[in-house]
Amino acid sequence: MALQPKVLMFGWEFPPEISGGLGTACYGLVSGLIENGVDVTFVVPKLYGTEETDKFRLVGASDVEVNFSTSKFQRNLEKVNYMQIHSHIVPYASPQEFMDREEFDVHSISKVDSNFTSAKFKFGGRYGKSLLSEVSKYALVAMQVAQDQEFDVIHAHDWLTFPAAIMAKEVSGKPLVVHVHATEFDRSGESVNQEVYELEKKGCEAADRIICVSRLTRRILINRYGIDGAKISVVHNAVVPRPAKIYPKRNLVDKKIVTFLGRITFQKGPDYFVDAARKVLDVMPDTHFVMAGNGDMFLKCVERAAELRISNRFHFTGFLNYFETNNLLGMTDVYVMPSVSEPFGITPLEAMRTGVPVVISKQSGVAEVLKNSIKVDFWDLNALSDTIIGLLKNEKISRQLAADGTHEVNEMKWEYASLKVREIYNKTINRRRSVRN
Predict the structure, then answer these.
(1) Is 146 within a domain?
(2) 289: in domain
(3) CATH, residue 231
(4) What is the DSSP letter of 309?
(5) How far apart are CA 317 and CA 138, in angstroms?
(6) pLDDT score for 283
(7) Which of 166, 235, 151 is nearest to 202 (CA)?
(8) CA 342 to CA 187: how far, in whole Å?
(9) Is there a single domain that holds both residue 277 and residue 189?
(10) Rg of the chain over CA atoms, in angstroms?
(11) Is the domain of 202 the same as that of 99?
(12) Per-residue pLDDT reduced to its tens digit, 313-370
């Protein structure tokens, strides 16, 4: 039994260069696994030079030399057919120019100069227009990494890395664990991107074991993707310890501050936050609201605040880094997460860790585990606004909820969550070995 397995892990982001909770969760999980004796190699599209390379074994896909000349690579290249990610071919590009193109088709490699034997791929590492092309390149790098590394199990975080993980599995024959932090239904409601949906489905079907961050996500995989529930485990997220530097409660404007922190997208319910703010301001007109984050609904929320004539009580910060987030939470009186569909939700844990009372939607995975939070339906604006008003007016209840919440999240450690993941690794590895024997 492999008590301390070697793990080849694929993730699209890693702190401090992150866009949301996925990178934070990866950091916490990998930290916990290392603490529990698990050997982890974490592959990201691009390293920025700001990562904790002394603590983690990180591989930047853009630094990996991919060898195209071997017969083994050519055989494995044929297996990439499940990724129908096509692009226009540039007939006269040099080999390296070809590899650096934003639009890329893995099947076009054979059309490049036969003297072209190896190259490094260029990655932006972001979520831009060339995202699917980068997913395709990343899968080819994964093929090379899987040939070069020694490991017992593959672990992939969300759909962006699923093609890469499948390639690594086919090259190595090692078992695959996929980790679903969010589904396309969470991100887009019923207006799903079919290509992303198919990649998610194929990743889950190819997996030997699936980890979901909540029972809510598990139900979605069963009901919307047709995945066998017998191979799905639920491991709830945790929170990293509070930073050594404590950010004391300080309200520079001497006003009550209510905060929304996260991507400003459909999934997070930012429009409900704005509408609830109008109701709160009808009762407590000096309250200030902060919406921290970026997303495709940013302008819509700015316009909605203007339409409701509450722009003078709203502050839109854009994306905040780790330290800016802690500073904001240090000034916050109430944190609100009105998500429409939230697989888990790490930011409420971060708020509670900082001593802030939280209001979360019942439609969130974190609601499955949190006791010391107030839960409302995301669509119930009266309940949401009444709860915010109650916490702002009743400092005794607010302080008690905050204190109990801080105590609760201090027990939600990645060290414990990673023990469950390590057990999943070992069972998956042993099951694969028993089948082969």
Answers:
(1) yes
(2) yes
(3) 3.40.50.2000
(4) T
(5) 32
(6) 98
(7) 166
(8) 9
(9) no
(10) 23
(11) yes
(12) 999 999 998 889 989 999 999 999 999 999 999 999 999 999 999 999 999 999 999 9
